[in-house]
Amino acid sequence: MGDVLARYAAGEITSINIVYTRFVNSVTFTPTKVKLLPVEKMEYQKKETSYVETIFEPSPSAILNDLIPMYVKSMFYSYYLETKTSEQASRRMAMENATDNATEIIDTLTLKYNQARQAAITQEITEIVGGADAL
Fold first, then answer.
1. Which terminus of the chain has fewer Cβ atoms in its 10 Å neighbourhood, N or C?
2. pLDDT at 135
3. Residue 80: how many CB atoms within 10 A of its CB?
4. What is the model's pLDDT at position 79?
5. Using an 8 Å Cβ cutoff, are 23 and 86 in contact?
6. Within the chain, which residues score under 70 in pLDDT?
């Protein structure tokens, strides 16, 4: 991340964009592109207020020079965590579906086994009764 910020500061690249997987809910994830730098200006409405001169220590430019990399790293980490959350939710859903399918297969095979066993028992009883009648 530091290399990208250094290249942006040096003017080698003109913007920093991130593509990540936005987590909507446990079954919905959307690929999203976000522009981190340059920060776009937001429109705001001016209110009539009185202004007090603020003295910054260190200087505003020094604060901004520290704040921008901190902002980019923070946003990058936030998007990274959202992507990992999407991945883990997707894995959980896949495992839940696999478990449900396995349970369904087990139930079907158990039913077929019990039917075959019952048929064998019925056949044996029929043979025993048929042998007793022949005597």
1. C
2. 65
3. 12
4. 95
5. yes
6. 134-135
Please count the residues of the chain: 135
Q: Letter for the amino acid at 127?
A: E
pTM listed for this prediction: 0.69
Percent of the chain having pLDDT more than 90?
55
Tell which residue, 59, 34, 35, 54, has the closest CA to residue 67. Answer: 59
Among residues 37, 10, 30, the alpha carbon closest in space to that of 86 is found at: 30
Per-residue pLDDT reduced to its tens digit, 28-40: 999 999 998 888 7
Q: What pLDDT, on a 0 to 100 scale, did the predictor assign at position 27?
A: 85
First-last CA distance in the chain = 93
Element (H, E) at 16: strand 16-25
Residue type present at position 42: M
CA distance to 123, 124, 126, 130, per residue, from 133 (Å): 15, 14, 11, 5
Tokens read off for 68: 């921008």
- CB half-sphere exposure, 72, CA atoms < 13 A: 22
Query: Residues 30, 22: contact at Cβ < 8 Å?
Result: yes
